[in-house]
Each structure stands twice: as structure tokens, then as C-alpha cells.
Write a structure and sequence with these properties.
Elements (H helix, E strand, L loop, with lengths): L2 H18 L22 H4 L6 E2 L3 H5 L3 E8 L9 E9 L9 E6 L10 H5 L5 H6 E7 L26 H19 L3 H5 L3 H14 L5 E6 L1 H12 L4 E7 L9 H24 L1 H4 L5 H17 L2 E3 L2 E3 L4 H8 L6 H15 L6 H9 L6 H11 L10 H7 L7 H4 L24 E6 L7 H10 L3 E6 L14 H13 L7 E3 L9
Parallel strand pairs: 4-5, 4-6, 6-7, 7-10, 10-11, 11-12
Antiparallel strand pairs: 1-2, 2-3, 3-5, 8-9
Length: about 500
Amino acid sequence: MRAGWARRLVFGVTLLASATVTVPVATRTMPAVANADEQSGLDRFYHQTPDWQPCNDQLLDQAGAQCANVQVPLDYSRPDGRTVNLAISRIAATDPEHRRGILLTNPGGPGASGLHYTAMVQPTLSPQVRAEYDLIGMDPRGIGRSDKVNCALPVPTMLFSAGFDVFGYARDTALAAALATGCVAPDADKARNDTTRNTARDMDVIRGIFGEQKLSYYGASYGTYLGSVYTQMFPDRSDRMVLDSAIDPDRYWIGMYQDMGPINEFALDDWAAWAAKHDADYHFGATAADVRGFIEDMIRKAAGHPIFDDMYLVDEHTVPMMLLTLLANPQQNANLATVVRMISDGVSGGPLDMETLKRKITIASPLETGGMASVICGDKAAPRDPAWYYPNIEAARATQPVFGAFANNITACAFWPDPVEPPTEVRNAVPSLILATIHDTRTAYQEGVALHGDLTGSRLVTLADTRIHGAFRKGLSPCVNDAVNTYLADGTLPASDITCEPDPSFFPQ
């Protein structure tokens, strides 16, 4: 198909989408905000007294957590205006006499609930760290039990693969436009102020509520971007900062997704080698090349036999995303094999239990579409012209046959209102511990190296030769865990950058 014809087709579909949905445009640019509690009108937020109650959640209750709601400004430039609710959790320090402060956590996403994350991180923390810190979880603004950003279009994700041709890309373009309107139109002020910079300001309010001079923090994945933005906005309030599976702030967010294409092609080959060793169980092929061929053929079959049930779609746009979700941890190898078998049988004409399929995928990545879209799109403007994306998709197909059409695809951000303030340039000397994994499937290793260069007071811990997202895990690498726990416990960073090996027993055979 000629490029000019393709461009006109995509442009026409975009006009159609724009004619049927209207996204509010930006009417102001919010100025950069100084340290929040130095501004008049914010004292009432910094000096709240949380009403701690049982969490009524099995995981949190078993961990001994309490929960509360606190209020923050929707728009920090208008502290007397509308407020939003934040849900926070607390697991108290086990030795109150030696308590040194709070350790706030964030699991990433964006779009992930953080209320439970304290209970998930707690087993990997040393007894000394648990003795010294109240562990604080938070559902960031727009997510979970906090005031959510609800989208009128009930799709499970804002991320899709563009499929095999310009017609599939045109479908995604129209869907992206509709999703943007569906998330912004119901409450434009809420959606547009659901940003990383505002979440960083919320973090500082939480610091003030606990009466702490400084904030210690553990953040993973997107949580590393949030943490690095906090260090830039509040350098004097930043204490012991751990940034696990780090993002390069300069490549957030389009570059970050483009980086996912090559690393997930590698991850698919790595999983294919495992599946080939288990061919007697799964019958995908006796070699890694055979398994990859099976996967690529399955995606082509999904294009010819799409399945839609219970607001869930299985086709060439969604199957690559299902694979990507489960490739992030080799402990999901068997689960991914089961998912592949279910999809293959379904697109070949057999039965497919859609509810079971959804559960197997979403348990590995429970992100909320509205929260994810509003943060990413509200942080940094995306190219508006749909024709900008398609050449990148086509260029990636030769070396990224499964994931290139996702990594370069258009999203709702192309149709989102302009951000209310510029993105944060992270360049500072705040001490921090950065963790980066050589074969991380979500945040490429070079991004952690880049953040290390931006945070000149940091140390970099590299987890060698491991296909996993999130290096600080119980049983994965004692070397990594010791570095994190030592830093949190007594503030000692490694004398120099270090490389850690994984424990082989962590991985399935």
C-alpha cells in the first residue's frame, strides 16, 4: 500500500473519531510550584490527623496494617479549591523506641494501587528496617480507593499492538481518540491534574502529616520516575531513596515504550527456550525457534478469528499485550504457557474460558486504565499527528515481529489535552540507590544507567543476566537485598557501583 494512501486513511479515521468525540483543550499553563508547605493555604493539608481504621482487606489486615483517608488539593496552585481523597495504609514500626521515620512505597504502573504494596514489600525488608520504619502505602490520586479517574469507555488497557497493517492501525487510532474523550470528558479537572508532579506533592503532604522532616521511599518501575521527580522537587526533604527497575526521565514515556520492543523480543525467545524444554507438556515446539513460530502463527490466527466476550477481546491487537504482561517474571513461565494454550485453542475454533484467561493475565498486572492514561498523558505531551507513529511501526517489524507494533503504537495521549505544566527535568545530587536488571522487560537496563547519570549522588546496583522486572524480591538475589536493606537501615550506600548475581533456585527449571 502506498504511504500517501495510508496517511490519508489514517487521517480520515482520526477526523471521524474527532468528529464524534470532543476532548477539552488546555486553557492555561500551571506554573512550577515551590516546596508545597511553604505556600499559603496548604497548612491545613500538612497538619491533618488521620483517622486510622481497620483496612477491611485480607492482605493488609493480616500484615497488621491500618488505613485512613487524607485530603489533598486537586490543583496545588488553587489550595482553597477542590480537594481529592487519598487512601493510605500504615504498618507500624516494630520497635517504636528506635523508629526513625516512614518508608513510603509505590509499585509503579502508573495505574497500580499502592495500598497493598507495603504488605508485599514487607517480607523482603530486614528485621532492622521493619523495626525502624512505619511502612506507608498509598493509592495515588485517581487510582483504587483514592478518588478514581473513571473512563466512560470500559477497556481493560490503553495499550494495544497496532496489528499487521494500516487498517489495524486506523482502528487503534480511532480507539485512542475515543478513550481519551472517555477518560477526560466526565471530569476534565480531575483527569488533567492526575500527574506525577501532583502525586509527588501528595507524597510531601503525607510526609508532613507524619511530622517527618524527610521522606524515605521505595519505588519500583514507574515508581522510580515518581521518586526521581520527588527528589527534584523536594531535594531537602528526600532521605533514603530506593529506585528499583529505574526509568530514564528523559525517555519517559514514549521512549520508554519504544525500548520495550527489543527487550521483550529477547524475553519471548528466553521463554521459548524454556517452553521447548517442556514440549512434552505444552506441544508448542521442540526448539525455541519452533515455539516462536507457534506464537507468531497464533497471533495471525487471532487476527482471522477474534474472540470477544465479557468486555474482553482476543485478537492481534491484544494477544501481544497478554504475552508482554506475563514475560516480566520467569516464575510466570508455566502460567504463560497455559495462557498460550488457551488462546491458541480459542483462535483455532475451540472453547475459551474468557473469565479464567482474564484472571491469569490481570493478576500479573492489575492496572487501572483511567489512572494510567491520565498520569502518562498528563505528564508529557505526545505527537498529535497519527502519521508520525506508523512509519516507526513499519520500521520495527523486521526485528520486532511480535512487539514492535505495540512499542511504537499510537495511544490516547495523542488526543489528550495539553499538560497543565511542563515535565520535570531530573538533574540533582540527592543520594539514592538505583536497581537495574540486565534483561528487564519493562524498563530497559540502559534507562537505569541513564538515571544513575542524572542523580549524581546515586549508586547503581546491577542484577546480572536476569529476565525479570523488579530486582528487590525475596529469594531473587541476596546481594541486591542486602544492598537495599543496609542502605535503608543505616544510610550506607555501596562504596561503588556493584553487580549482583541472581540465586539460581529462584527460577523454574
